[in-house]
Every structure is written in C-alpha cells, then in structure tokens.
Amino acid sequence: MTERLTYAAAGVDTEAGDRAVELMKDAVRRTQGPEVLGGVGGFAGLYDASALTRYRKPLLATSTDGVGTKVAIAQALDVHDTIGFDLVGMVVDDIVVVGAEPLFMTDYIATGKVVPDRVADIVRGIARACEVAGTALVGGETAEHPGLLAADEYDVAGAATGVVEADDVLGPDRVRAGDVLIGMASSGVHSNGYSLVRAVIRHAGWALDRHVEEFGRTLGEELLEPTRVYAADCLALARDEAAQVHAFTHVTGGGLAANLARVLPVGTVATVDRSSWEVPAVFRTVRDLGDVPRGDLENTLNLGVGMVAVVAADGADAALTLLQERGVRAWTLGTVAALDPADAGDDLVAGTKGVRAGAVRLVGDYR
C-alpha cells in the first residue's frame, strides 16, 4: 500500500500558523482604535469609514511595497523584530508625500517554513512601526511555500490606505520658484540599495559580525538599522500653517535627485548643495570598499537624506523649528528656481520613473 500524503507531509504546518497568530495578536491589537472592527483572524479587516464624512472631498491614497534584499541581512543575523519598521516606512511614507494620513495597513509574509516565534517577531515589528506612524494594522497573511523558499527564508510586503482632503493634496502643483528644500536625516541605508551594499561587502570579504570602529558596532548591526518612519512628523509639518509645505519626497530607490524631481513642476529646477550635510559613515564605507562611483552612490542610496520637504521660503524657519522639536535632524538642502531653457547638461536629473516633471542638479562636494 502506498503511503498517504498529507498537507503536513508536503511541508505546510497550519498549526504553526495558528501559534504565530496567538503570539502576535496583542501587538496587532495595540495599533487598532475603535475604527477597526472584528479583531484579529477575520477573512478581511474592517475599518469604520464614517470618519470620512468630515471631509468635503476625501481622496483615498494607497501604496504597496516590500523591504527588498535587506531581509537577507535579517535572516543572516537571525534578528527579525526590526524589519517591520522597514516595511511600514516604505509604504506609509509614500502616502504622506501627498499629504494623506495613513489609516490602515495590511501585511504579507511568505516563508519556506512557518516558525511561530520568527513570524511573530516580524509582525510585532510591523505593529510597533504602525504605532509610530499612527496607522492601524488591520490584517495580514502568512503563507508557507516549501520547495519555493528555504526553511529559513522569507519575504515581506505590505499595503496601506490613507485619506487627504482634495484641497490639501501636496505635490508639483503647489511648488514655486523660490521654494526651499528641507532635508530630513535618514537613520541609515533604510531599505533601498541593499543589492549594491551586499555586493560590496561580499567583494571586500567582510563578515556581518565584523566590528567597525566608525559605526561603533558591527557591520550587521549597522546594516540592519531600521528605516526611520517619518509619517507622523510629515503630517505635523503639513498641518503647520507657518511651515507652508508644498510637497514632500520620500528618498527611496533611485536616490535623492531622481525622487525629488518627481515632485517638481515642469519648468523648475532644484539645486541641492552636497556640502549642506555630512554623508554618514555607512555610505562612505560602501563607497571606499567597493570603489563605487559617486554617480552610482547617488542613484542608488539615500546618502543620509531620507525625506525632503519643499516649503515656501518664509516657512523654512518654522519647518526647521518644528522638526527639531520633534527630534528630527533637519537642515536647508537647497532651493527651487525657474529652469532656463538653455540650461541643460548631463548634471541635470529629470524624467525619472516615467514622470514628466521638474529637474534636479546636485552641486558642490560632500563634507
């Protein structure tokens, strides 16, 4: 008689998934206010949208993203409770760019084998980051994919929905010549460019447990530093009339110039002064270990600038003061001007991500 095959024999342990839910559900509930109905474990997350009636013309904003190959660092170090900040930051901070308040988020985890403690650690990190962002975590899914992923491998993704009053949408339509760029410091590499970073450290033969004096900790600890979640800070800035915010840009894949160009109107150019900030040690280390050209660094990594606010010139001081009060290191990064049609060259960045918009020029040298 042939042996009967079961789902468990095929490599899927549904009971392990149930145990993971039990371990994570308290952290998830802490993100949920009275607007979230049904609790943990339903087929769909329910969110009471009656609050939208206070808007004259509410626009829903949505975003989805993952963490990329940074998960390889988490897996190598067997540290999984911080990667959630990377996921939430990549998703909700794209929503606040248009001035939208992120209302709720869902997550998806695919893994070769459900290890309840590991899955719970990932979700606890997501939940903590949602608390920081002021976003409810209303649901998610953990999928076991034996044969597709190794037992210790996983990937994470998420999606969020937010709302903004139509009259308050931020973006290129508000930006004017004379506006000032306010840079907000990143917490490190964030969640973009890890394919380059990992290639560099592999080429150099550096181990993740190597202590790096400039970092004051190991290489792995530096690379696993969670992404800063700017959502609450950006919303506070957008609501401050004195700051006169016209646009935000989230510095993710493509680097500072490519992402900044997306939120500028056609016919303008932003000049960014490289000397206005000091590039953090982790980026200098990547540059030196891999002899990476400056162009590749600028087109791949945030180099210390995680978010940019474009504000009216007479709102810059108020913006800087508010961010300082909220514990966000910020500085004047540059200015926006009208683009001279005769002003063109290889140093101008424009037309990125398929968007017809403004242009950006980086000038000077880093400190």
**What order do the SSEs take from the amino end to the carboxyl end, as H and E?**
HEEEHHEHEEEHEEHHEHEHHEHEEE
What general form does the structure show? globular
The unreliable regions are none
The CATH superfamily of the largest domain is PurM-like C-terminal domain
Helical residues, percent: 25-40%
How do the strands of the widest beta sheet line up side by side? 10-12-7-13-11-15-14
What's the structural domain tally?
Answer: 2
Q: Name the CATH class of the largest domain.
A: Alpha Beta
Quick summary:
The protein has 367 residues and is α+β, with helices and mostly antiparallel strands.
How would you sum up this structure, described in words?
With 367 residues, the chain is α+β, with helices and mostly antiparallel strands. The protein folds into 2 domains: 154 residues, 2-Layer Sandwich (60s Ribosomal Protein L30, Chain: A); 192 residues, PurM-like C-terminal domain (Phosphoribosyl-aminoimidazole Synthetase, Chain A, domain 2, Alpha-Beta Complex). The strands form 4 sheets. A 7-stranded mixed sheet has the order 10-12-7-13-11-15-14, sandwiched between helices. Strands 3-6-4-5 form a 4-stranded mixed sheet, covered by helices on one side. A two-stranded antiparallel ribbon has the order 1-2. The model has no long low-confidence stretch (mean pLDDT 93). It is an enzyme of class 6 (ligase).
